[in-house]
């Protein structure tokens, strides 16, 4: 005797339920695996960010050390230029003492006038 339609319906529904249960289990395992993988990626990413920030801080400190040396170099260059300017002015004063005195006197006069006019 062949199974009745009702029996076949029950068998197929049971089989469908069994497949649904297996699918739910597979989905659960898959979600757990994805969450674990995402957690691993997050930990790896966090470690990479920390490493890059640490490297950035070390590079910044090294740049700061060179910054002080670079500033000293620039001060030395400016001092040398200042010495050259003073030497040039001394040479000009030795070559043309009367003209230098006249320029200095005129500059002093103008500064005095400006100082008096700003007091009013």
Number of domains: 1
The low-confidence parts are none
What's the number of extended β-strand segments?
Answer: 0
The separation of the N and C termini measures 128 Å
Oligomeric description of these chains: single chain
SSE ordering: HH
DSSP strand (E) fraction?
under 5%
- Secondary-structure content class: mainly alpha
Descriptive overview:
- The chain has 120 residues and is an all-alpha fold.
- It contains two helices and no strands.
- The protein has helices at 5-95, 97-119.
- α1 packs across α2 (97-119).
- It starts with a helix and ends with a helix.
Short key terms for the protein model shown above:
rod-shaped; 2 helices; 95% helix; 120 residues; mainly alpha
Layout of helices and strands, plus pairs?
Layout: H1 5-95, H2 97-119
Helix pairs in contact: 1-2
In short:
The chain contains two helices and no strands. It is mostly helical. It has one domain.
